Amino acid sequence: MPKYKVIAQKLIQKINSDDMKQGDKLASIEELMKYFNVGKNTIIQVLTVLERQGYIYQVRGSGNFVRKHRRHGYINIMETSGLRNNLQGFNLDTKMLDLKVIKPTTEVMANLNIDEDEEVYYVRRLRSIEGRKFSVEESYYLKDVVPYLNQDIVEDSIFNYLVNDLKIKPGFTDQFLRVSKLNEADAKLLNLKAGDPTIFLESIFHLENGRAYDYSKVLYHYEETQFFIQGTGTMNL
Amino acid sequence: MPKYKVIAQKLIQKINSDDMKQGDKLASIEELMKYFNVGKNTIIQVLTVLERQGYIYQVRGSGNFVRKHRRHGYINIMETSGLRNNLQGFNLDTKMLDLKVIKPTTEVMANLNIDEDEEVYYVRRLRSIEGRKFSVEESYYLKDVVPYLNQDIVEDSIFNYLVNDLKIKPGFTDQFLRVSKLNEADAKLLNLKAGDPTIFLESIFHLENGRAYDYSKVLYHYEETQFFIQGTGTMNL
């Protein structure tokens, strides 16, 4: 792991600890250089990562300060490294409902920007948190990028498999959120009634090179789901 | 306006035009330097802004490429410069329901991180898009930061007033989203029924120096509202 990531993770642990609160001042760049025994460029890279991820904010001429904004149980919608990584500390269970290779539908072709000849993996999963039904997920993975999936992978963390085993480099993500109403089948899976509201989240995940490789549609249990959305707000036009 | 902002706005206009699509390559840094007659640092600043705002993505060793991800009518939840700036091209109407200076409630004290002696402006507004009821908004502004508000300001754009007249420098924003159910009074305002679902969005806006100055609670008409959430995804840990 590159040096800046190791240092960033150490600082995040420190910030997450109970003795730091919003507005607390971070050590100066010079102090951090000395403490971690690295150069100025590495520390600046670390601080840029921490700011982008919403752990700190920079005040020109004053220094860097802690952000403590999370609310317990809220899902960070900008954290696209998978639900398992997002909800650490919670008891998460994933059940595979379907897994097969298919030809893309018109909707999938449009969202992944592919033509009808490209095959995709179709995955359908039911997820529970602390034993309570939480979400029904449908995902379409480009088979050209994700050549193999099985039940073990799908019921653990697909994201970790893609990054650690397939060495995929995730890039940017587009997400679309609205409230919809559940049909009979999905409602039954979530222990709700047909017509009950649901948060419907569509996500398009891209590789670092800009190619879309995963289109997901998730129905969230409206009573179990809360999202946290952080904006860095810096350099607004 | 600083040079980099002027150039960024010109490039955004270009990207928004119909003849650019997702994946189209941008001119190189050298070409942009020559075209706009500025130095390398300015162009790099411009590209950083465009990437953060989701207009482009950078591929190491290959260049910069256009992102075209927006869906018509979706609100960009990361764009915190006010609904009026967010929904340009739509017919937006804002009606003031209440405006007064009050002592903060416990909830407001917690979210703005203030004590009971600090006064706040309380604003309640009903917003319509294209003649259809859209949202009921309650906002609490720190009177120390926003010393004056009136009906004209509140029914136009509070954000523009803060930035252009009060010269406030907005910083980062924390937002919390969940589905809730409407009570009788709010349902009536939105032409819905009590118990109907609503997207409940809480936002805490901070100044550049990290001080919270605005806590807002918005109830959105669930059939009229769709959010777009963009992730840059770069430098994930």
Automatic annotation (TrEMBL), chains A, B:
Sequence ranges assigned to domain HTH gntR-type in this UniProt record: 1-69
UniProt xrefs under SMART domains: HTH_GNTR (SM00345), UTRA (SM00866)
Keywords: DNA-binding, Transcription, Transcription regulation
CDD domains linked to this entry: WHTH_GntR
Name of the protein described by the UniProt record: GntR family transcriptional regulator
Species annotation: Tetragenococcus solitarius
